[in-house]
Design brief:
Blueprint: E1 6-10, E2 13-19, E3 31-39, E4 42-49, E5 63-69, E6 74-83, E7 90-102, E8 105-114, E9 121-128, E10 136-137, E11 162-165, E12 171-175, E13 181-185, E14 197-198, E15 204-213, E16 216-223, E17 228-234, E18 242-248, E19 260-264, E20 267-274, E21 287-292
Antiparallel strand pairs: 1-2, 2-6, 3-4, 4-5, 5-6, 7-8, 8-9, 9-10, 11-12, 12-13, 13-14, 15-16, 16-17, 17-18, 19-20, 20-21
Bound molecules: beta-L-arabinofuranose (FUB).
Length: 316
C-alpha cells in the first residue's frame, strides 16, 4: 500500500489519515464487510474488523470500525464505534452491518451471534445522533432472531442486514444467507412493520445491498461460493427483481466479497473486500478495497474492474 500516514490528535481520539491503493487500510486494521453512508459531503465507511491471527480457523470479529472521507482518496480512521458488548443479548461474531440516516438519527444495523436463549445469528440495531455515534442498542433486544425464520436448517441465515429508505419515506430491511428476505420497518426504524417476505434471487449466498439510481432499484448480492457479486433490477422496491448477471468476479484471495455501492459527488463507487493484503491477508484477514462503478445508458451495470491502484482521483 502506498500509504501516507500521519497521526492527528482529535480530543482524546487519535485519528490516522491514509491515502492509497487497494486494499485501503492494511497497517493497523483488517477491515471487512463494508457499508457506506453519504452524509453532508462526507462518506462514512462502516466495516467489520477481522482479528483472526491466521487464515486457518474461522472469523474472529468483535467490533465494527468507522472511517470517513470527503474525497474518496484520503481517509480518516475513527476506530471501533460499536462492539458486540454494546448488545446485552449478543455473545460474539460481529459480522456484516449497515448504517443509515432517518430524521437526523443514525441507525446502525448489525449481525451478531445471539446468546443461548435464542441460539443462532441475529440482527440488531444501534442508534446515535451523528454518523460517528456514540451508538447504543436501540431496542435492548435483537430485531431479527433465528426462530423468526424456520425454513433453513442452518442457524446463520439471519445475517447481513441492508436497509433502504424509499422515496415515500418507507424503510425496508433486507437480509439473509441461503434464503434472501425483506420486511418493512416502522417509522421508528427499530421494529418490523409487517411479515417477513421471501425474495426470488438465483444462486443467492448473502450480502444484499439495495440502492436506487434514477427510477431503477438495484439489488446486488453475493452468489455461490467463492462469491461473485451479481445483481438484479426492478422498477419497485417490492420487486419482481430481474436477474442481470455478474457485477464483480471473485475477489483476490478471499471467498467472500461483500459490497457496498454509493454515488458521491457525481461519481459511482463499488466498495468490497479482498484477502489481497500481504503478507498475511486471506479468508479471515480481509481488507476493504474501492473501485469505480459505471452504468450503461440502459441502466445496466458494467462489470467492476478490480484494481491495485484504487481511487486515485479525488472527488470534488
Ligand atoms: O464477515 C463475516 C461474514 O462473511 C459476513 O457477514 C458475510 O457477508 C461474509 O463477508
Amino acid at each position: 500500500m502506498t500509504s501516507n500516514l500521519k497521526t492527528l490528535a482529535a480530543g482524546s481520539l487519535m485519528l490516522a489519515a491514509s491515502a492509497g491503493a487497494n486494499p485501503l487500510f492494511t497497517d493497523q486494521y483488517r477491515t471487512a464487510d463494508p457499508a457506506a453512508l453519504v452524509h453532508d459531503g462526507t462518506v462514512y465507511l462502516y466495516t467489520g474488523h477481522d482479528e483472526a491471527k491466521d487464515n486457518k480457523g474461522f472469523f474472529k470479529m468483535n467490533d465494527w470500525l468507522v472511517f470517513s472521507s470527503t474525497d474518496m482518496v484520503n481517509w480518516q480512521r475513527h476506530g471501533p464505534r460499536l462492539s458486540v458488548t454494546d448488545f446485552s443479548w449478543a455473545k460474539g461474531d460481529a459480522w456484516a452491518s449497515q448504517a443509515i440516516e432517518k430524521d437526523g438519527k443514525f441507525y446502525w444495523y448489525i449481525t451478531a451471534r445471539h446468546k443461548d436463549d435464542k441460539p443462532g445469528f441475529a440482527i440488531g440495531v444501534a442508534v446515535g445522533d451523528s454518523p460517528l455515534g456514540p451508538f447504543k442498542d436501540a431496542r435492548g433486544s435483537a430485531l431479527i432472531t433465528n426462530d423468526m425464520t424456520t425454513d433453513t436448517p442452518n442457524d446463520w441465515d439471519d445475517i447481513d442486514p441492508s436497509v433502504f429508505i424509499d422515496d415515500d419515506g418507507q424503510a425496508y430491511l433486507f437480509w439473509g444467507n441461503t434464503k434472501p428476505r425483506y420486511a418493512k420497518l416502522k417509522a421508528n426504524m427499530t421494529e418490523l412493520d409487517g411479515p417477513i417476505e421471501p425474495l426470488d434471487l438465483p444462486d443467492f449466498t448473502e450480502a444484499i445491498w439495495v440502492h436506487k439510481k434514477g427510477e431503477l432499484y438495484y439489488l446486488s448480492y453475493a452468489s455461490d461460493f467463492p462469491e461473485k457479486i451479481v445483481y438484479a433490477t426492478s422498477s419497485s422496491i417490492k420487486g419482481p427483481w430481474q436477474y442481470r448477471g455478474i457485477l464483480n468476479e471473485v475477489a483476490g484471495n478471499s471467498p467472500t466479497n461483500h459490497q457496498a455501492i454509493i454515488e458521491f459527488k457525481g461519481k459511482d463507487y463499488f466498495i468490497y473486500h479482498t484477502g489481497a493484503a500481504q503478507p498475511d491477508g486471506g479468508e479471515f484477514r480481509r481488507s476493504v478495497a474501492i473501485d469505480r462503478l459505471y452504468y450503461n445508458p440502459d441502466g445496466t451495470l458494467k462489470r467492476v474492474v478490480m484494481t491495485s491502484e484504487g481511487i486515485t482521483e479525488a472527488a470534488k
